User: Fold these one by one.
Assistant:
Number 1:
Amino acid sequence: MTGLNGLALRAVLSVRLRASGVRGTLSSQRHVSEVAMQRADPEQPAKRPRCDGSPRTPQRIGAAAANASPGSNLHTDIRTWEVEDVCSFLETSGFREKKVLDSFKENKITGSFLPFLDESRLENLGVSCLKERKKMIACIQELSQSHIELMKVFNDPIHGHIEFHPLLIRIIDTPQFQRLRYIKQLGGGYYVFPGASHNRFEHSLGVGYLAGCLVRALAEKQPELQISERDMLCVQIAGLCHDLGHGPFSHMFDGRFIPLARPDITWRHEQGSVEMFEHLVSSNELKPIMKNYGLIPEEDIEFIKEQIMGPPVTPVQDSSWPYKGRPAKKSFLYEIVANKRNGIDVDKWDYFARDCHHLGIQNNFDYKRFVKFARICEVKDTHGKKMKHICTREKERKDGDIIAPLITPLKWNNKDPGSRQEASKDKVKKQLF
Ligand SMILES: [Zn+2]
């Protein structure tokens, strides 16, 4: 794994400090770049000795936490804080507005999320006054300076500079994920189109990134949906890991090789992805790391697998809702990475753009426009049951501007006629805009 970290790091072009505005208010007065060199994650594998034998700069984690200690009752490592600890810290720091504290509780903001709260997220959490938001951010930055995690930035040819949360980096830096570097995205297509040399690795990064873009946009536009930071991380993990189970030459493995080599089995790469994800988590002992970042592995691993695979074979008892990871009120989260309902998902957004780029053909689908107009609406299905779905403007569908390239090949209208009829009603349109 250590060697593979190196591989991943070579792909990383630059590192940005999330809290680049941190001032040297601590007694150590360390320079920001010095802080950036530290690894705050105690679970990170030990660094190898340098080739020339010179010692590494000793780590100084802990000094800031001691100086900026929020109180004797709270652990100095803010990542261990539960929601109650966060609220206690806010109260002792002078943020006592009940509405805000309730919002932090409702959204289950644990200590691991604190360093990632920016102005727009705080606004969504009910901190309406700009001055208060700035004060709260400064407070959190000072407290968490010793635990600033490294957000890694990749320069992707399709999406530009894309940034990943440290937990996502831990997943990317596993042998199971790095394996995707050697699997051709378009299988044998490379032997026809010489530009089609791209691999599942970069596509998976793109899907993880787009999943984050869409879920975050929905959370910001519709705070009433109560999309938590935990939800967002899980959706991004599902985006990253949705293709882990592909075999050599991708679909050629499913469609050509397996039917000849193993006619006795039915192979689906989605099932392979779920099994490989389980193996990735267990063999790299990621459950405690997930916990550190605020996830609840028992629920969230199931949620991630369901997003990749679809509903479990045995549905939840006494319920028409087939999923276990998240309740029906968050049904739309299952439509981001692999949309089993109409096929419009971020997986396709990425491979449309990426494959066209490498094949040298034009891509007519503009995912940024789709994200801009996407809203969650309650839509009746053919049985009259209401469910929350990702919708777009009627105008977009009618004019064929943004989703025509997706719905035409997918025969979206035929696949789900109920949603089409309901989505076109004036009532839904009003809900949208
Ligand atoms: Zn894919």
Note: The chain is about 45% helix and 5% strand.
Number 2:
Amino acid sequence: MNGLPARRLLLVHAHPDDESINNGVTMAKYAAEGAHVTLVTCTLGEEGEVIPPGLAHLAADRDDALGPHRVGELAAAMAELGVTDHRFLGGAGRFRDSGMMGAPQNTRPGAFWSADVDEAAGHLVEVIREVRPQVLVTYDPDGGYGHPDHIQAHRVATRAAELAADPGHRPGAGEPHRIAKTYWNRVPLSVAEEGFARLRASGAGPFPGTASPQDVPGVVDDGRITAEIGGEEAHAAAKTAAMRAHATQIAVDGPFFALSNDLGQPLFVREYYELVAGRPGAPAGERERDLFAGVDA
Ligand SMILES: [Zn+2]
């Protein structure tokens, strides 16, 4: 179909770097296996804080040049993961980073948080009807941790999946397509706790402080996890390299990393998901080891 590979995975994220932190192993794995991996990033991450002092001038409150810089970081990260189809929702710069919840940037013109969900979803419908993914990965309704752009990414992805499948929605704009399985990004609590125990045992690495399991987006009780991806050293290495490529946002040190808050956290080389739509491809009580399990390619 469309000359694309049989297996097609779509990931929807808020900012450049979210995809590498959440799904780097998964993206590297499926790209390496020949699946078509499409990343849609909803903003350029213009409001991010900048870690390297030499690049501090890029920040929104100085030159406001972080967006274009992060486009380059994302491209470098995708090269590390072997992903060639990465796009910005509605084109680069169509929607702007909204900043943290409650910030004045939430409501500035063009802010993703202020966008009409159906209008924003319309751009994603076009991608879905073109690429025709069987599997969609996005955040939970809280965006994993309450960031407005992450919440909005969830809403837009969910709405677009619905509209893309509806034959009555813009009948001229591509054949309708129903996504077989939708997953939310998750981290099992036990994995987060074990990771932080490792970090504390190592003396917190080079970071001045340590985050806590509750700071990790998408942490839930282990019982909610339905899929687990990982175990290949090459994919873990690709994820680490992709995270390093987001140098304005992430400081990687061995098996740990920190964001601009300088709090160390474990770098997870296994990734976890909760299936929220579609039929599980593993027996009840067992985790899927393949997001395409049970999907007819
Ligand atoms: Zn983000």
Note: The longest strand covers residues 181-188.
Number 3:
Amino acid sequence: MPVDLSNFSQKELHEWINKFDTILCDCDGVLWSYNTPFPGASETVNTFINLGKRVYLVTNHSHILREEMLAKCHKLGFNVKLEDLVTSSYVTAHYLKQIGFNKKAYVIGSKELGKELDEVGIEHIGIGQDNLDCDIVQYVMKKYELDENVGAVIVSFDANFSYIKLCKAVNYLKDKNNLFIATNGDRYFDFPKWNFLLPETGCLINAIECGSSRLATIISKPSTYLCNVLAENSPPINPKKALVIGDSLRTDIVFGNNAGYETLLVGTGVNELKDVEEIIEKIKSGDDSQETKKLLPNFYIPSLNDFHKKLME
Ligand SMILES: [Mg+2]
């Protein structure tokens, strides 16, 4: 079982924090739920910053600009700077820049992703509405055409996702030289206040993977490409001194384990301690796959409010 930090004394908790110089913290489900901050969250993050830790707020959210995220953080009391904020669109654009991608991208995604691509000088097409305006057979025979300069299909959250976009993505991917990448693989975004699940990028990836018989490379958490992107402007992260805080086992905790960082599960979002117990049971019953083991966090705290209260005891 992960070590429950709520059993630590204040002194033990301070000693524990001192082990880390870099903290990568997820946002939704850890710091806030949509626009409502969790009690103790801003105090905890600000304490890390005041202690001199390098703090990154890392979200798989792709349709928010970092400038907008900064305004939100400041409104909710987090004393962070623009360079501390990482979105999956930002990571994807910088990943493409780092690998020297110099063709055009066909993008299923938001205008915010488009802006991140613009900032690193990557040409793109596809953002916005693209709907069928004739019979599908007529479309195939008369209107269907692909841009031969496209060298990648990028998939992300797209509220304008359509059958025509699916057709185009699948057909661009017939050329095996064309990259197939996705900002994130999240399945849904939960709006508990409205009892609504918003299907996320993972659902769109599945449709395109099914049609193209290819697998997308996911750039943001749980992949570790973002570590290379962060190293663009900062010294490389020392894995022994890095901590990932998150609420999702599949994204945050697997990311931390992939990167070799310590991991802390916070019980205010997607997963709870009982999910960890289920994984441990699976392992005990003989599942010793790395895939399953990577879901296990090192530490647990019910909420950042518990963390903050313990620090202030
Ligand atoms: Mg989360």
Note: Residues 201-212 form the longest helix (12 residues).
